[in-house]
Amino acid sequence: MTTSTAAESASAPSASPVPTAGHPADSVTARPPRLWPAVLILALFWTFTFVARQLDLITFVRFVSSMAASALVVLAYLIWWSANGRISRTNRLLGIVITIAAAAVCDKSYGPFGLMMFALPCVLTTATLWMLAARQIPALRRGWVGTFVVFATWGYFPLIRMDGIDGEQRAAVHWRWTPSAEELFLAERNKGRTAAADQAVADADRESIGAVAYELQSDDWPGFRGPNRDGVVRGLRINTDWAGAPPKQVWKQRVGPAWSSMAIVADRLFTQEQRGEFEAVVCLDAATGREIWSHEDKARFWDTVSGAGPRATPAFDGGRIYALGGTGILNCLDAASGKLVWTRNVAAESGAAVPGWGFSGSPLVAKGFVIAFAGGPGDKALLAYRADSGEPVWSAPAGQGSYSSPQLVSLGGQQQVLILSDGGLFAFEPVSGKPLWNFGTPTPGAPLSLQPHVMNDSQVVVISPADFGLALVDLSQANDAWQATRHWGSSEIHPSFNDFVVCKGHAFGFNEAIFACLDLENGKRRWKKGRYGHGQVVLLAEQELLIVLAETGEVVLLAANPEKLDELGRFQAIEGKTWNHPAIAHGRLFVRNGEQMACYELPTRTASPGGE
Fold first, then answer.
1. Nearest by Cα to 431 from 338, 366, 372
2. What letter would DSSP give residue 86?
3. Residue 223 burial (CB < 10 Å; 0-12/13-18/19+)?
4. Which residues have a Cβ under 8 Å from the Cβ of 50 and sit 6 or more positions away?
5. Cβ contacts of residue 377 below 8 Å, gap of 6+?
């Protein structure tokens, strides 16, 4: 049949079949397909997507609802497409085959999540818009051109790479052939390196190791969020006139991908990073950024949302470094030389699956034990090993999902290990692992990642999924039995993976992407202002100052003012998506993300007499 015949058939009251392009034995009616169901499906999806971005939703709620909406639109569209009698069976099957084939050749960085949330909705929308525009085109030409449009739309996605998403779930995309940040780091690291040069550096470092005093000092930063895991810097006073005396860059360099923070002891910095197929615990000279040693394991964790690399921060204790990798490898290393002392695998020993976003809890060293969250079944959730030998000591049930870190606190005159998980907030006796108390309603699958904050001897502030925000927990003890009760629950601030700090009865932290202040006496929000993205914050206790590391890599200085957002200064520290916690030690600010790491000298009060 000729094109003119197809056109005449398309205008006839009762359309007759015409051969499908490339399939003479099959046919498709000249009448265009009924499109209003597809238009309605996509209109509802894009309306939901737009509205959801305007709402102040909890990150996990937004993530789950977006995934659900994407899955529903794909399923509904597939049902409409498969049941549409005005499209030939061959063309319906061809459309599905094209979709599957195109998805198969997309970059692996998409994963099922990226294809479902980003690629498929765009392809389905483009195809539907084409079918709307082509309703008056003859059937034969409509089939050929429609196939080209679908191929062209799908053809874009195999050409790009998705480098994760930001806190607001916007995808970062680059051309597939451009080098990734990790590839640039590896190329720079390997440039000009030789085995002889590496050995010479290593020998020189070993000779100087004996002069390094690996004993904790008051202004060291020995692990995740500082000495007490509360994000508080004590004993440091700085000049707040950053316009006249800004922080001075000491060094900046590329780094392998990881969401680990840094531990700083004496003049050494310890962190983790991904180096191709190897996960590395790295020791740097804190003054220059030069590598002193690294320990590598053949392991690689990666997920579509966050990308590659370890998540947890190394912990220093007694001249040793304890580091948990993204796949569950727990290493004890000599802090001076990087020599492996012992190693365990918490995933294998607990029977736990590797979490969706990797093992993220930083190990806790307390009472001669190393305590790590594994999330295994039964009593294999929290594991304790002897710090000197790695010998297992005790294990305890504490939920099965957590991205938080075990934390040593003192409550009711008793030292306790707290861990937040999808089973609630749990407390244990650190030596025996004996359960003391727990609080909260189990929320299986919830990716809880914040640290609890001890207010006083009988109160703890903790993230509470049941309250869609925070809760203040009252603790009491009678006859050796503990009781935990809710004092208040508040949905007026709901941090996701952004820890908060406490200053004079107020919590300062992120209400999703906007900075906020909460009155901890009653759970009422004082203010919400300052769009710093999904960043992190530390408190300079002596001056009641906040240093915010924004998601964009910018550093912002704030006064811890419960009355208003009081911004004192800012500067761009590093480039790229920044979710890592900053560290402050010896008057220096250390920041990093999955691409860069930098050190800045904070100005002292004497640097500018008029600064404060």
1. 366
2. T
3. buried
4. none
5. 350, 351, 352, 400
Neighbours of 253 (CB within 10 A): 17
User: Residue 142 in contact with residue 132, Cβ under 8 Å?
Assistant: no
Are residues 295 and 169 located together in one domain of the fold?
no
Give me the CATH number covering residue 418.
Answer: 2.130.10.10
Pair 368, 508 in one domain: yes
* CA–CA distance, 531 with 513 (Å, rounded to integer): 6
Close Cβ partners of 374 (under 8 Å, ≥ 6 residues apart): 328, 346, 347, 349, 350, 352, 359, 380, 381, 382, 383
Under DSSP, the state recorded for 23 is E
Q: Which two structure tokens, joined as six digits, stand for 335?
A: 């802090």
**How many domains does one find in the chain?**
2
For residues 324-337, one letter each, b for 16 or more C-beta atoms within 10 angstroms of the residue's C-beta and e for the rest, the string is bbbbbbbbbbbbbe
- The answer on 572 and 502 residing in a single domain is yes
Residues found in the chain: 612
Q: Of 152, 175, 198, which residue is a domain's last?
A: 175
pTM, 2 dp: 0.87
Q: Which residue(s) pair with 570 in the sheet?
A: 556
**Cβ contact 421:407 at 8 Å:** no
What's the CA dihedral at 556, 506, 217, 291 to 10 degrees?
Answer: -40
Burial of 410 (0-12, 13-18, 19+ CB in 10 A): exposed
Measured CA to CA, the distance from residue 302 to residue 310 in angstroms comes to 9
pLDDT per residue as tens digits for the range 201-246: 555 555 444 445 477 888 999 999 999 999 999 999 999 999 999 9
**Where does 328-391 show beta strands of DSSP type E?**
329-334, 340-345, 364-366, 369-373, 382-386
Indicate if 164 and 225 belong to the same structural domain.
Answer: no
At residue 200 the predicted structure's pLDDT band, cuts being 50, 70 and 90, is low
Which tops the pLDDT comparison, 95 or 44?
44
Query: What is the domain range of residue 125?
Result: 3-175
Q: Characterize the bridge pairing of strands 307-308 and 315-317.
A: unpaired
Q: Which of 119, 143, 175 is the last residue of a domain?
A: 175
Q: Is the dihedral of CA 311, 316, 317, 320 positive or negative?
A: positive
Question: Which residue, chain included where needed, has tokens 């930083």?
Answer: 362
Q: What's the one-letter identity of residue 305?
A: V
How do strand 554-559 and strand 545-549 relate by DSSP bridges?
antiparallel
Predicted confidence (pLDDT) per residue in 69-78, tens digit: 999 999 999 9
Does one domain contain both 160 and 187?
no
Q: Is there a single domain that holds both residue 207 and residue 345? A: yes
Per-residue CA distances from 17 to 20, 23, 131, 414 (Å): 9, 13, 19, 83
119 shares its domain with 48: yes
Same domain, 100 and 202: no
**CA contacts within 13 A on the Cβ side of 283:** 25
Q: Which two tokens stand for residue 60?
A: 């996990």
